[in-house]
DNA sequence: CGATATCTTGAGGAATCTCAATACTAGTGG
DNA sequence: CCACTAGTATTGAGATTCCTCAAGATATCG
């Protein structure tokens, strides 16, 4: 794909070119749109544009003007913050149904990049905010969403500030597995669309330590490493206990 | 004070016993109430109760049912999360105007304790939530608030995951000084109502490391340690640079 | 099937932690 | 007003976890 700018033209398609994308929307029932009734959906639809990004592409640049709000439709992405010297902290991995860009500042304080091929539903912020004022259920939904993200963020602070490498990796795997289960059948084999280095930057560790910890959990027969992107959790209970620091 | 329970009776006073507490409220212009017009304030006032807590007292127990929302009126407090074995991560220090207990779950995922003598304005959650549905400006304000807290939380993740001890301490002092300045005149001498162990649990360090880092910054003539609770920032610029990792 | 990136493993080093002793501070009672 | 006590902060020495640097193994993609 010939797109280099985060808000590129290639891959962008007007909602109407997809017919009634909201009707066919895969995440209609889990995203924020789940709150909306048909006439409201119609208004939202007019603002929405589906965007496609290739694996590795930048979606948001840290510090760029905050012009859009996105809803993840398909794929996975990483959200991160950088220090001047390049140190990176990944603050979250987003999956279908998640929101990206819910800020009320002039600019984004973080960057976002595609981990896989990604489809996003994009809304211009000013228009979306007016809509928000008119649809109270939507505003409430965002508030609930933000508050739950805040709780997750505090969990991550506990992890980063007080957990050991083993506990961090176990927490990550446990949370990622739970998340997959929420939208599919209970599966012990989980897919990790991110690299070891992404995991490291999410857990405040180095790639080497993440790798060693995986090996250690494998040796303890808690995990089975199928290939770098697929892990089978042999002892979900134990993983959870390790994650909780027991 | 004879109060032992987090939702104690002693020290609790009905709003009316204080006359018109909202009119005299010290944080009327900075808290969420700043959004409200007079008739709305009247409705809020009926729900509000002023609570007093002594230094060290518990305000919220981690895991307790989330029955109230609080607005800090006076004093300072710590919000934290615990692991089963007692490891603690302080997720924030609250000051007048800050919200405590903005959750839409059944229970609090965190604890809160008074660092100094504290006054809180307390609202029962169910009633507050109905009020929220009727006062859109209030709901919007909470959303903006939550989103800005989320940004702060991500800053803290960057700190915990990727900064050195020196950078963490500098970040903390810089942020705390900025915060004090926002409500008072620019002062280089800042008050730290929390202990070294609180600072350590906030920064993901040990008390010893925090103490050593203070000493180090003092030796570099960046700080002056007046007493354990008072610090003078001799080089605000340098503190900020160290905090940013330059 | 080969080139390249990613992942794993190893050895040594550094930052921070742990344990222990000393110094300071604040509050208490003589 | 001062000495005493309990809690908090600082300093020191050694241990430990995790990081850094480097090499080898494995997977991915054209």
Describe it.
- By secondary structure, chain A is α+β, with helices and mostly antiparallel strands.
- In chain A, 41% of the residues lie in helices and 22% in strands.
- Chain A contains eight helices and twelve strands.
- Chain A has helices at 21-24, 38-47, 125-134, 136-162, 165-183, 196-203, 207-219, 236-244, and strands spanning 13-14, 49-53, 58-60, 68-74, 77-82, 88-94, 99-100, 111-114, 118-124, 189-191, 223-227, 230-233.
- In chain A, strands 1-2-9-4-7 form a five-stranded antiparallel sheet. Chain A has a four-stranded antiparallel sheet with strand order 3-8-5-6. Chain A has a three-stranded antiparallel sheet with strand order 10-12-11.
- In chain A, helix 5 (165-183) packs across helix 8 (236-244) and helix 6 crosses helix 7 (207-219).
- The longest helix of chain A has 27 residues, at 136-162.
- Chain A is globular.
- The model of chain A is unreliable at 1-19 (pLDDT under 50).
- Chain B binds a DNA duplex (30 and 30 nucleotides) through helix 7.
